[in-house]
Amino acid sequence: MAFPKATNRDLNYADDKGLRILSLDGGGVRGLASIICLERLMYRLNKRRGPGRDLKPFEVFDLIGGTSTGGLIAIMLGRLRMDATECRKAYVNLMKTAFQGEPNFVQKVMRFGSSSGRPFYSSDGLKAAIRSVLHNAGFSENELLIDDSLDNCRVFVCATSSRTTGLKIFRSYELANENALDSPTIITAALATCAAPPFFDKVQVGEAYYHDGALKANNPIFTAVEEAQNIWTADDSPASLENIKNKVRCIVSIGTGDLGKHAVGDSPIERIKMLIRLATETREVHGKFRSTWGEVFRQRRAFRFNVHQGLQEIAIDEFNKVADIIQATEEYLNEGDIVGDVLDCIKALDSDVRKLQYPRIKSNPSQFAPKPGVFIKREALLRKTEDLFRLSDKQRSIRTIVNIFGRPGSGKTELALSFYRENLKSFTTIVRISGQSKENFSHELVRFYKSILAPPEAHAGAFDDQRPLLIDNHFGKVTEWLNHTDNSKWLLLIDDVYPGYKEDVLDQKYEGSRPHDFLLEFLDRIRQGSIIVISRQELQLRGSQSLQVTALKLEESLQLLKDTVGDSLHNSDNGKDPASF
């Protein structure tokens, strides 16, 4: 289902708190300058806020949008929820991978002038680099761009249609005239917004092909404003622009440096002209925006940061100029006027900054734990389980996986639940999920999300449509909650895990001891906390420890029998003790 163009919650939030919007220009490797500017803003903002956990950009900004590599940065900050420093480090590595095998001047001229239109670089390198960023951030390469929780920071990236040259917006949110099923994956959206000709080939999304958005909106500030109108105003009337101006508490536009007229050095003439046009367009767009939003600038609610000296000679694919970019940006940020702009900007950002949107468990912590059954307390196994976890706060900040395995009926699940009950004060919640199949696993993960973590809108029906293409989004939200730095005191119990198999599970014809890929992929996303995986045989799980539950001893079996039937055996007519049978 499509969300309304502007919900009451959106309108109320915009009125009560004010909106914070971040717009990021394109610029290839010079996008590093944008990240450094943002890194300075976030450092000053967190220092102003005093002791406590540092905020990340997605916790400060309600909307982050970008073009080309600015779009890639927007995804990293808003969709992958990186902090600015993480983003900077990942971005440098990504650029090095994407621009490997740089062609020389002659090769560039020949490729650019050939009828084949062969790009300077392979898109495979860029795709591999983006895939690595997703993996390191705990996301699957199949993760969709759309993120349908209304509490999240919204993200958009710009691309250009290869056929119509029209601007295409890929969003992490859904507008009234869109269908979430059309959402691309994060990788596809990132490739599309970065596919700058002649550097990379066009990218197919659905039935259409796209180049990077810099050809239409290298400075996407007006697109950001239009998106804000679509989300946070109730209509499309001309008055809505003035309405959104009043709702904005702080809007920040960050460029990738003034290129002047010496953008690319040894590149072909046509390429120089293209880059100069793009550089001129960003200046012209900012000039128009400042004219349109002049009052907001004067009120110190709108800011533009753009390095004006030192980046003129750096081409967008010269990743070996990282040191030069850093030096030029640091010099820019230390200029007197810019220092003042930074201080004014963080004052605007800090004013009534929104509270963290990470959900907290409000219900009974054991809501998702099953009722205890009849169980023989096996002290040795219980102590062994506790030893494997070592429930200190420091230990829980690192992921601990214990694979409890044994024959059916040996008490594997009850051992896990007994461990939880014995250490009740050590956990905020327990979540039990069936790992028997991907269908069961996905269904119960979505149920947990809807019942505990989802915003109120989910209970009004917004999440009733459990479309398979959106399952990964719920995976992302749950793993995000599990990985949150203030939330490591949980126990995740994954029961009934079968290895990969070729034939029917009921026939127990297993193929090795490696679990299904969906479970391995999910576990790879988790970076902290306590996880118990229950199976009939020992599994191959990266970084796990194993504990075998063997058959009950005779005295334990008798105790289980007594606990099950009570005193009826002692009170029976034969008067025999159970041990005599």
Nutshell version of this structure?
43% of the residues lie in helices and 15% in strands. It has 581 residues and is α/β, with parallel strands linked by helices.
Description:
The protein is of the alpha/beta class. It folds into two domains: 8-350, Cytosolic phospholipase A2 catalytic domain (3-Layer(aba) Sandwich), CATH 3.40.1090.10; 379-550, P-loop containing nucleotide triphosphate hydrolases (Rossmann fold, 3-Layer(aba) Sandwich), CATH 3.40.50. Helices cover 43% and strands 15% of the residues. Helix 2 (31-49) packs across helix 14 and helix 16 (379-389) crosses helix 18. It starts with 7 loop residues before the first helix and ends in a 16-residue tail after the last helix. Pfam families: Patatin (PF01734). A motif (GXSXG) lies at residues 66-70.
